[in-house]
Amino acid sequence: MMLLDPRLTDCRRIFLQDFAVSASIGFHDFEKKTAQRILISVDLFVPISASTSSNDQVDDVLDYDFLRHGIESLAQSRHFNLQETLIDQICALCLGQPGVRAVRVESQKPDVYPDCKTVGVEVFRWGA
Fold it and tell me: 0.90 exceeded by the pTM?
């Protein structure tokens, strides 16, 4: 269970876990030859007041479909040498959404090394 910062106790956590996308990513020569599978997980922290609908309508809350579309678009947009660069751009995408107070993004490359389950990077950022 994730321990939360007191600044997030009035927030709802909206999440996307292990979203598999194909991306040109990595600085090793063998990684530059072909796209590889990466897994992206995102936690968005949105104040309950900005993520509640009295009408049970998606237009009243943060629609997380933008995450899937935005991440897919970013992953396909160019070659990334570093996972850090990709997740920083995903953070910027998320923090650009109205009401997002904070975001956690993780990327994993599960197919890079045969002797480990995955390698990855994680970042947590506060909005403005």
Answer: no
34-68 pLDDT per residue, tens: 999 999 999 999 998 777 667 776 665 677 888 99
Number of H helices, E strands in the chain: 3, 4
Nearest CA to 3 out of 104, 119, 106 is that of 104
Helices (H), the chain: 29-32, 65-76, 83-95
Residue closest to 91 by CA, chosen among 120, 61, 124, 121: 124
Residues in the chain: 128
Q: Which of 16, 18, 6, 2 is nearest to 101 (CA)?
A: 6
